[in-house]
Amino acid sequence: MLTRPPRTLTTAALLAALTLVTVASVAFGARDIAVTDALAALTGHSGTIDQAAATQRLPRTVLAVAVGAALAVAGTTMQAITRNPLADPGLFGVLSGAALAVVVGIAFFGLDNRVSTFIVAILGSAGAALFVYVIGCLGTSGGLRGGGPSPLTLALAGAATAAAAGSLVSAVLLPRVEVMDTFRFWQIGDVGGATFDHLALGVPFLLTGGLLCWASAGGLNALTLGDDVATGLGSSPGTTRLFAGAGAVILCGSATALAGPIGFVGLIVPHLCRLVVGTDHRWLIPTTAVTGAVLLVGADTLGRVIARPSEIAVAVLTPALGAPLFIWIVRRQKVREL
């Protein structure tokens, strides 16, 4: 069995990787830019044509960092509060619920305010999460009073909810051919077309969700031992689930409002990070945030490079990149819960 590297070394390596993919994201695309010009753009210079072009790529790079971190932290938190290794914002239908809420708001209620979009997306995420939880509880022998849903019923309820919400999004959009290009964003997530103004609106929501999850790290550690043991250690499982779940929902809704539904990041990143930093959520949550950012920035850069002069949406690439790695982790770890 491989020995885990020191956590400080892992943190330094991840920050170095984030720096490298950030520079690559600014430098590479439909038109390659010298690394020196990319570095100059990152430090605020735009005096040459190449530096100006690199500057235009900064918003999508920052957005990829923010969304990747948010989805990874949300996935880590959801896996902890449900004790389900398959918990993921995409597989549990939370991202699809947020997208459906926004699409319905735009199509039927004329939603056009960006702040309202964030609020509606968060409400859609919360509604989908609550729906999956209730259906999961009803699928157990004890119903809503049976001590909560099992990992299997949660996974089944989440998969069904994600499929249903995705179908409803298509049903709303397909008759509106004239706006399909605009609404396609809500079917396949992407970070292209990002602006700092739009990202700035999401910062308060992202920070709130992230802080709620991180503040719950101690309680999440106790939850891994079971509710009875957590209670004996002085933790409140219900309170931990409430605050951590609220943080995960806010992160999912905000990420969807910023970039559309992007799946698989919240599934693969927590498993990968547990291999190197263990299960202490005080370390795991910030580590998954950085790793999620690295994954999404790298996937976005790759999508621009391999499809020149066009590009592949990042939500198409994340499952393709993450699935083989997830299969390797499952085979290596022989995860009992699966």
From TrEMBL:
Taxonomic classification: Bacteria, Bacillati, Actinomycetota, Actinomycetes, Mycobacteriales
Keywords in UniProt for this one?
Cell membrane, Membrane, Signal, Transmembrane, Transmembrane helix, Transport
- Keyword Cell membrane listed? The answer is yes
Task: Name its cellular compartments.
Answer: Cell membrane
Membrane topology of the entry: Multi-pass membrane protein
Q: Which InterPro entries match?
A: ABC_BtuC-like, ABC_transptr_permease_BtuC
Sequence intervals crossing the membrane: 61-78, 90-111, 117-140, 152-174, 242-271, 283-306, 312-330
Name the UniProt record assigns to this protein: Iron ABC transporter permease
Instruction: Write down the PANTHER family for this protein, in alphabetical order.
Output: FE(3+) DICITRATE TRANSPORT SYSTEM PERMEASE PROTEIN FECC-RELATED, FERRIC ENTEROBACTIN TRANSPORT SYSTEM PERMEASE PROTEIN
Signal peptide coordinates: 1-29
What protein family does this chain belong to? Belongs to the binding-protein-dependent transport system permease family. FecCD subfamily.
A single Pfam family it belongs to is: FecCD
